[in-house]
Amino acid sequence: MKIEPFQIAIPQSELDDLLRRLRATRWPDEVEGAGWADGVPTAYLRPLVDHWATAFDWRAHEARLNAQPQFLTEIDGQQIHFVHVRSPRADAQPIIMTHGWPSTAFDFHAVIGPLTDPDAHGAVGAPAFHVVAPSIPGFGFSSPMRTDGWSIDRVASAWSVLMENLGYADFIAQGGDFGSVISPALARAVPDAVRGVHLNALLNGAGVDRSRPDPLAGLSAADIGAVEETEAWWAQRSAYARLQGTRPDTLAYALTDSPAGLLAWIADLEWAVGDDVLPGEVEVEKEELLAAASIYWFTNTAGTSARIYKEHGDLFGDTPYTATPTAIASFPRDGTRRAIAERHHNVVRFTEYDRGGHFAAVQAPDLLVEDLRQFVLDLGER
Fold it and tell me: Domain Epoxide hydrolase N-terminal, which positions (predicted)?
């Protein structure tokens, strides 16, 4: 498998075009006083678009992202982009970290240093890792998307090929959001290679599959209450997933033509899982949000990344059981219940946190790193 070094280099003409489109944004009318009840309000989005157009420095972010070693390869006919940072420690173990939507492989930038070189980050002697962080096909620089049919299992198969070709015979699989279903699928695909699975933002840990007989059987009253709360929340917030799961190509025209529309679409989801805290102000830093939106814009992947919802289907649906030892870190707004997670995973560690959120690698990188370290130490004692 041919692996080539990669550096992001967005042409200035594309930057100029983005700024022109942002300045020419056509704003919708809205009902007075609606706030966030009906979607993203212009009172929030206008200043954010203005910041993107006037204060956001893409070149600075481009240089920051390029500071991490990146590569391109081809697997199963698809270009795959990945970040690969090796630890200076001789006892380091490999880990593959998978993002979700609307995230990118660069969400892990704040955890890579502490994971690869804990000694230099105030954690002398803590477990060290060689970090591989690929972009899911159709996301970011794993584009253009050449074929459909990139199911969760097919992505997992590609990841197994990637790790094999990097020379890693056994490793840890970590992931959040869609990464939380890709990582277990990887463990099922190559169970002898995956030593452990570490998950956050678990898709199949908060709701139940209502199509199964007696879906609430075995759950406590507290678990059932949490499921009902999740289902009520999902009924109000799931429009984006339903559209992406049924008509992603139709949606793509709007998101591909309007950067303000793309930003609103991403920000609405960031707000929905951020415990009603405005994205870009506390839960998700403004610069990180705009960097992610810029990557989606420059790579023209708003539509192809949405296709993963269509490929995966019901986010709360049943998935095959994963026997590999699994740790779950539950952050605010994840809604993960251990009893539900244990239907799908061999849960050996379950930790709830009161800080962070659905995008833990960005919102609480220190907690995610420490949970990963402790899980690996626990694995060594098993």
Answer: 3-108
